[in-house]
Amino acid sequence: MPSTRVRSSCCGTWTCDRRARVQRGSCGLSEMPASPVKAVFFDIDDTLVDDAAATRAGALGLFDRCRDRLGECDERLMQRWITLLDHHFERYLRGESSFIGQRRARIRDLFGLSPDQMPDAEVDAIHEVYREFYYGAWRLFPDAVETLDALDGYRLGVISNGTSALQRRKLAAVGVLDRFAAVMISEDIGVAKPDPGIFEAACQAVGASPSACVHVGDRLDTDARGARDAGLTGVWLNRRGEDAGTLDVPAIERLTELPALVTRRRAS
After folding, report:
1. Quick one: three-class SS letters along the chain?
2. Which tens digits make up the pLDDT trace of 177-205?
3. How far apart are CA 158 and CA 144, in angstroms?
4. Omega cis (within 30) before 259
């Protein structure tokens, strides 16, 4: 792979120079890059938007409509759906399946049927039931707007894995799409988090060096460590208070803790 790649995206043309990448491994703010913070990026799902709750709402609607084929909904069935969703979405991110392909495979696996037993048209009709309830349950976390308001003096953006149309529709539905100077979606960029390329593209889109940018997300490796390895300040949003042992990145449990962290980072 060449050291420098140039891509075109919805935010213009950006260059990714892997030779210039900086690796950092400490969570101490005093050891982070000293450049003044200019931009703050957010993950979308389970950072700004309560996607887990929407996923459960979508699944419950689907299970209820298909009760005659799936039986009674219980936690075991819910966990099977979530496991299938994660498995097939990861395959999509790795380029092993199209977005529609992973969606159809997830439905067929839930019912335990092959493509011959469940044609595409039937799968798509079943998924429409899920999507109806899933879309209707999109909600911002209660701490999202307060945090965005507190960071209004910075260039704000999002960095998200997924399809552009879906993620933009989600932001618009919860009323925050116009709050962001850059909306960087893996489908548009051609690489997904934690690949450094998507973080570097985001920094270039807002005209700031990685060392002057902060990214926060709910996934420790994908978001916080991925951002850190691209030269940004990566922050882990640990809403559930998980014990991850010794951390090498800053961690917060509520999004409203982010402005103070950014202020300390700016002053360091």
Report:
1. CCCEEEEEECCEEEEEEHHHCCCCCCCCHHHCCCCCCCEEEECCECCCECHHHHHHHHHHHHHHHCHHHHCCCCHHHHHHHHHHHHHHHHHHHCCCCCHHHHHHHHHHHHHCCCCCCCCHHHHHHHHHHHHHHHHHCCCECCCHHHHHHHCCCCEEEEEECCCHHHHHHHHHHCCCHHHCCEEEEHHHHCCCCCCHHHHHHHHHHCCCCHHHEEEEECCHHHHHHHHHHCCCEEEEECCCCCCCCCCCCCEECCHHHHHHHHHHHHHC
2. 999 999 999 999 999 999 999 999 999 99
3. 13
4. no
**How many residues are there in the chain?**
268
Q: Specify the pairing of strand 213-217 against strand 233-237.
A: parallel
**pTM score of the predicted model:** 0.85
The tens digit of pLDDT for each residue in 99-109 reads: 999 999 999 99
